[in-house]
Predict the structure of L-threonine 3-dehydrogenase.
Amino acid sequence: MQKSILIIGACGQIGTELTLALREKHGNDNVVASDIREGGEDLMSSGPFELLDATDYKAIENVVMHYEIEEVYLMAAMLSATAEKFPMRAWDLNMGSLFNVLNLAKDKKINKIFWPSSIAVFGPNTPKENTPQNTIMEPSTVYGISKQSGERWCSYYHSKYGVDVRSLRYPGLISWKTQPGGGTTDYAVEIYHKALEDKAYTCFLSEDTKLPMMFMDDAIRATVSIMETEAENIKERSSYNLAAMSFTPTEIAASIQKQIPEFKIDYNVDFRQEIADSWPQSIDASTAEKDWGWKAEFDLEKTTETMLKNLAN
Ligand code: AKB
């Protein structure tokens, strides 16, 4: 069924691929991309685009009215590493933009919202392996605090005002079309670029830092799938745990070496190590599996093959 969709933050790592996937599914003209800056050629030329500041309620409302938007995907956010440098700016962007779309839905100007949460909602006191859907959440990062608060607000707007908001706790995302920016898991994308360019990579996390990760195709499938699920099956109105694979820098390097034997990794750990150390090592996604049928398709080997093949072209 065709519907009118707005993506805020469409030029970022997830937004770019999500926009292209939704245009494919719902028709180019029905999916309006927006961002504070212009994006790649594919995105700009394939459908409508608006320059839009996610913290400007009036500007978002104008776009929503103009295009008769029904669904909003809010992908604009400041990620974990940058947020540690600019705590107030991160809070203002991450929370202000969320309130803007929640209030549009509360006032019945849009019907449905997707908002991304993150494994960053968990903290140093959370069980690290197979982290459950509901457990201790004491995030120790600015980004994690904003995502955990956001989850509480989503749940509140759903129960008090009936807002249909859906959310996923994304792990680190690996993609070849658009690079991430400002995250702690970014190393798992940079490493493929450097493997092809220099046959060497200096990693800012230590060799045995294990983190939950996911290939972008799986993340997009999960996002489309949770948005297409019947409302009564969405039991978690905070956010769903989501999982595909977990690995360390040593393990991703070994998977690259199977294809580029001369590839070398060394380490120069920085402030991002402390962020990574506060996060889970693996995630239990059984609630998402049960409620709306989540199943990952990409493991580390398939991710490495796909990344190297596409980046080499
Ligand atoms: C980050 O590293 O900040 C993000 C995330 C895990 O949410 N990729």
